[in-house]
What we know:
Two copies of one chain form a homodimer. The first copy, chain A, is an all-alpha fold. Chain A has a single domain (53-401), classed as Orthogonal Bundle (Farnesyl Diphosphate Synthase), CATH 1.10.600. The first copy, chain A, has helices at 43-46, 60-82, 87-96, 115-127, 133-141, 143-164, 175-179, 181-201, 207-233, 241-266, 271-298, 301-304, 310-313, 319-325, 330-340, 349-358, 361-383, 387-401; strands at 168-169, 172-173. Chain A has a two-stranded antiparallel sheet with strand order 1-2. In chain A, strand 1 and strand 2 (172-173) form a beta hairpin.
Amino acid sequence: MSHVITTQVPHGTHDAQGPGDPHDPQGGPGAQGGPGARDTRDPETARPTGDGRGRDRPDEPEAAALLERVKTVVEPALLRAVDRLPGQIRRIARYHFGREDAHGAPIEAPAGKAIRPALVLTAASALAGGPGPAGEAAARAAVPAAVAVELTHNFTLLHDDVMDRDTTRRHRATAWTVFGESAAVLAGDALQALASRLLAEDPHAASARASARLADCVIELCAGQQADTALERRRPGEVTVEEVLAMAEAKTGALLGASCALGGLYAGADEERVRALDAFGRQAGLAFQLIDDLIGLWGDPRRTGKPAGADLAARKKSLPVAAALASGTPAGARLAELYAAEPAPGEDLETMLRAVEEAGGRDWAHAQAADRMARAMHELSRAVPDPEAADGLLALAEFVTRRTS
Amino acid sequence: MSHVITTQVPHGTHDAQGPGDPHDPQGGPGAQGGPGARDTRDPETARPTGDGRGRDRPDEPEAAALLERVKTVVEPALLRAVDRLPGQIRRIARYHFGREDAHGAPIEAPAGKAIRPALVLTAASALAGGPGPAGEAAARAAVPAAVAVELTHNFTLLHDDVMDRDTTRRHRATAWTVFGESAAVLAGDALQALASRLLAEDPHAASARASARLADCVIELCAGQQADTALERRRPGEVTVEEVLAMAEAKTGALLGASCALGGLYAGADEERVRALDAFGRQAGLAFQLIDDLIGLWGDPRRTGKPAGADLAARKKSLPVAAALASGTPAGARLAELYAAEPAPGEDLETMLRAVEEAGGRDWAHAQAADRMARAMHELSRAVPDPEAADGLLALAEFVTRRTS
Lengths: 405, 405
């Protein structure tokens, strides 16, 4: 297919102040939450773009235009759904989605790029032949599924922010810091119920299957977040790469996969294609996570919005670190020793970072990211053999992983 | 109908050590959670019975036998559903349902009386004509709805226990005290998703409508819990009786109502009857809450498992207290003053209790409970005009409110 692109991922340009970072985040300090926060689950805000750089990359304008179109359709439906919530729960949800400030006054803050709704609608359109009246009709019919996915995503964000003690999200104070932990948990609970409500009331023939699939995804997301919490508590030597990959797949890949799968279901795809769409989203999600972890270690702090070495100082077992720790190399053993020490101000994070690289963590993560994108492309070609029809999904995968090629 | 019974509720026998308490709780200390916890949402464990006293009351044996039969059917289906959860999430859920101890060893602890599943199956059976092959078939078909309701109930318990800092539930340590707050929240999230999953995969013609109704109920439960948290933070004079009643209806009545409604939906009832079933459950739930609040103030501490006056010491704005505070009487003003003072060890709780009574809080709550039960009976006769068919639901309402008559 004409849109299979090389899976070359950026390498050697991620030095802490280097200019070659493929991501162009607009995020100021705080956009990432606390230093202990894992940047999973939210490719769209983890490394946001916005300064216009890189617009010359082939799929960038297409993805941006597509996301804009999706937002125009999905956002009003999303807000209509949120406005069905009662009283204070609605207020918290409207705050979280950037429609109200802490005092209930109307504002218009960014509510995320709507990557997941875009995957739903684009997958539905792709399965119906891509751009054209049939594709557009399929996408329109899938709007309730797109809204349900976005509500689900935001339910997990509300809960994760409480658990991870993250104080900022989308450049604003997280809901729990404004309304309290209980209120944020309850608002998240209500968003999960609202997602289920939208699918239950949708007369579309696929809505029940979509609801079942989304519920399975939520269970996987919970298991992923649970595994993450448990992993961070364990000693460096006790964590395997497979575990960290499985955790990242559950936390980040599962909902991207489900988004594509729901789009496919709404377009009437058979189970085999739905599975391929799911795998496409999962693998793209894993590629995103690997690249995001690389940038967390070697990215430009002026761009990531996090101080250099913050992930190391927080002893995050990100994917490159997990690979280094499990490498069986002297550098890996050295890293394990450094990671076992209590974090202290002024500690030598540069030595740690070098140990990750010497132990092969950086190379491994680059190779894995390339491999995952290759798998994603393979699954996409199975799900949507016509390259033209697959174009939108390809552009979104590119956008999510934001590679240099 | 032959089963309409007088709505006489116990009065004058609730002195702190009095023998006339209509409830026969087996709950030892700790069965009620922390002293600040509101006993809403769980009629089945709030004042458990178990010593065999009171078995001579007319509907008691019927309800007990009915609950036993329901458990035999629902519990295996519930555990099969829970066992579909992954890894640690499954472990937390199995712990919560009394199937495992904190170390994962198998146990058999009580997992509640399954009042809500019983309401689902009994409502389905009642709408299909009551006892007999048709009623039994309707109840059997409604098992997925019964399991979904019980999963939903337990999702809210897991979350509420975290929010209310309750340390015991069903005589065991709450999940969050064993596995941590995040783990308990995630297990609750997963149970909510699992409930939605069961309805989504159920081919029954009513499953989508049931799913929509259950989602609405969850949103109401969240709003109720949110209102409760907010109410407890406000000053005594600022809380109206209507607010406290609305909160109790959302927290306790909504899921009892939804249970009956789901049973009706599964038996093919029209919307009017479904609404009447919902109202029946709600009103019975409110009657339960009123009586439970009365016992929280005037019940025998040896039976409630809480020290006398614990609700007052915690400044709980229970229904009789809210009515007293809003009474406009001198005693109400005195109570407001006492409630505004910081709780202190050795404070005069007896004077407070007398102020509630003098301000009319006790009488009001008794009258309200009687009124709510009357409304419940009225709604039941609309939903199920045949008294024989309505018998099971009536017995369950009696069981939940456990009156002397």
